[in-house]
Protein: V-type proton ATPase subunit a
Organism: Basidiobolus meristosporus CBS 931.73
Amino acid sequence: MAPSTFFRSEEMSLVQLFIPSEVARITISHLGEKGLVQFRDLNPSLSSFQRSFISEIKKLDGLERQLRLLSEEAEKQAIPISTCDYDDPEISRIQSIREIDELHDILNTNEQMLDQLNSSYSELQRQYFELIEQHAILQESSTFFREDNFQGDGGISSDVDTTQLLLESGPGDSYGVRYVVGVISRQRCNTFERVLWRSLRGNLYMKQSEIQEPLWDPQSGIAIPKNAFVIFSHGQELLGKIRKISEAMGATLHSVDDTAEARMAKALRISARIEDIKAVMDSNNQTRRAELSKISISIPAWYAIVKKEKALYYVMNLFNYDRNRRCLIAEGWCPTNELESLQSTLKMSSENA
C-alpha cells in the first residue's frame, strides 16, 4: 500500500456496522472523537422531518433557543459570558439521557423565572412612565390655568377671565366652557393643531408647552419628546370631537382637577407612587442581574453539551433502523489501516455502556 502523504489519502474500506440501539449514542460519540469513519446517508429519499430522531433534535433545538435567550438577556444586562474548557471531561463526555432531561428542566426553570421577572419589570416600567406623564401634565397645568384672556368664536370676549370661566361655569351656565388636557408627540403637534382648527372651524382655544423630559410612547415602546396641551371649548358635542381627534392622532388624555389645591395634592400622591415603583424596579433589576450572573457561568458548557447531542442525532439519522434486531445499521468509509482501531472502539463502547 502506498504511504499516505499530504496529497494522497489513505486507502479506504467500506464498512458496515450493526450498533445496538442502547449503545448507539456512546458508540457514535467515541467514533466521532477518534474521527475514524465518514458515514454514508442510507436514507437519501427521506426529508429531515421523516427521519428517526427528529423528535430528539427538535427537543435540542428548544434547548438551544433557551440558551440563546439566556445569552441575550445577559448581554442586555452587560453581564459577560464565561468561557469554558471544552476538553474538560465533564463537558466532553457523553451525557446520559437523564442528564439531558435534567438540563432541560434547569433551562425551563430559568426561562420561566426570567419571563416572570421581565413581565413584572415591563409592567412596572409602564406604570412608571404613565405616572411620570401624569406628573408632567400636572406641572404644566400650572401654566395652562393661569389668568389669561382669549377671544373665541363662541362669543367669549377678551376681557373675560379664562380661569374664572373654567372653574365657575357649568353645563347650565351661559358660557359652559370646559377643557380637554393631554400629551402628544411633539412631531405631531402642528398637524394636530391644524386638524382641530379645521374640524371645529376655529371654535376652540388651545395652549401647549414642551415637556422637558422625553416620555414613554406605548406605540413605539421608546421615550420620545412630547408636548402637553389644553383645549378650551364649549358644548359636549365639540368636546367629544376634540377627544376623538386627540385619540386618533395618538394623544393621551388625562383628567385634571379644577382647583390648584387638588392638583397639588394629586401631584404629591403621584410623586410618592413614583418613588415606590422605582424602588420595586431597582429590586427587580438586582434580582435579575444576580440570577443571570449565576446562569452565565454555565451557558458555554451547556451550549457545548447541546451541540454535541445534536451532532450525535444528526449522524444517527443517516442510519437504518432494524426493528427485528433492534439495532442501527450504518455504512461508512474508514481508512484500511484503522480497521483494528475501529473494532477496538466498538468493543470499548459496548463494554462501557
Q: What stands out?
A: The first strand starts at residue 12 and ends at 20.
